[in-house]
Design goal:
The protein has no helices and 27 strands. With 305 residues, it is an all-beta fold.
């Protein structure tokens, strides 16, 4: 079993897949979660006035995607990106103002922030229905491509070891596609819709399917292992939990189960159970003590690190 580094009860529901950690002042981490009624709440441990209170941001739209990350702005700090059914909001939490607001007619099901391939600046990539758009800090569309179906998951991974990040895209048509810039260089057909994708090490990445399957590909098309559960998998990530220099596959499930598996064999190493369905798994040096924690969020607002 795992022994938590810390536990929180935030007393607000956390929607599935809609949590991340952002450093909105450039230094201190803030757990950011979407909750009911089109609201986002923040838990910021360094805010001594708030202590364990949470602060709210009203989006007033049904939230479909959420991510934190940095674009090429003059301030070296994270921004908050919020996808709704047909819109994308880039929000500066520190200044309490919009950076830009864009229509997303194809929807915003997944958001990923970072630098792709040969692009010179980081972008906010938004996956919708058969399309992916990328916006810079000015809100200009600097990337656009089509994909086969409704995008359900995205991740960066250098699958060909050329030193540049490719874009992994999972979708409702059971395909995991690899994009080098705007071109598809690989397609892998799975047995069900893709729920989540996570880079592991070098060319490998983990995946999760809607039928409860979790597995690892050494590179596209070369599956290393997979396991299947009768429960729904809600979240997956790669994280070196035991400090051996190798990331493990961390998966969270609808029955509250947390599993830690070897990335090479799929063998179960650790497990834990939360009181409710797991909504999201993120990583951060949340206590600012030089140690990165694995932070597991449940649907009822329980947080365990």
């Amino acid at each position: 079993m795992l022994i938590p580094a810390f536990e929180l009860q935030l007393n607000n529901p956390i929607l599935k897949g809609l949590a991340d950690v952002g450093k909105y002042d450039g230094e201190h981490p803030s757990l950011t979660c979407a909750t009911m009624a089109g609201k986002i709440f923040f838990h910021t441990p360094h805010d001594k006035e708030a202590q364990n209170d949470v602060k709210f941001l009203n989006i007033n739209r049904k939230i479909s995607a959420l991510a934190c990350g940095r674009l090429a702005t003059k301030h070296q700090r994270d921004l908050l990106f919020v996808g709704a059914q047909t819109t994308l909001l880039a929000y500066d939490v520190q200044e309490n103002c919009d950076l830009f607001f864009k229509d997303a007619p194809d929807g915003a099901n997944a958001i990923l922030v970072g630098r792709l391939g040969e692009l010179e600046v980081p972008l906010a990539l938004v996956g919708g229905n058969c399309s992916i758009q990328g916006y810079d800090a000015e809100g200009n569309e600097e990337f656009w491509t089509v994909t086969g179906d409704n995008v359900t998951a995205m991740a960066f991974c250098d699958v060909d070891e050329d030193g540049q990040l490719e874009l992994l895209v999972g979708s409702d048509d059971f395909e995991i596609r690899v994009f080098r810039n705007e071109e598809v260089i690989s397609e892998t057909t799975e047995t069900e819709q893709i729920v989540a994708l996570a880079p592991m090490r070098r060319t490998s990445f983990a995946y999760a399917l809607v039928n409860g399957t979790v597995g690892v590909y050494d590179k596209p098309g070369a599956r290393r292992w997979r396991v299947k559960s009768k429960h729904d998998v809600c979240a997956i990530t790669g994280f070196d939990l035991d400090g051996d220099g190798v990331p493990e596959v961390i998966s969270g499930w609808a029955n509250g189960k947390l599993e830690v598996r070897s990335d090479t064999t799929g063998d179960l190493i650790y497990k834990d159970n939360l009181g409710g369905a797991i909504s999201a798994i993120v990583t951060s040096d949340y206590r600012s003590d030089g140690h990165t924690e694995l932070i597991v969020c449940s649907a009822d607002g329980e947080v365990r690190a």
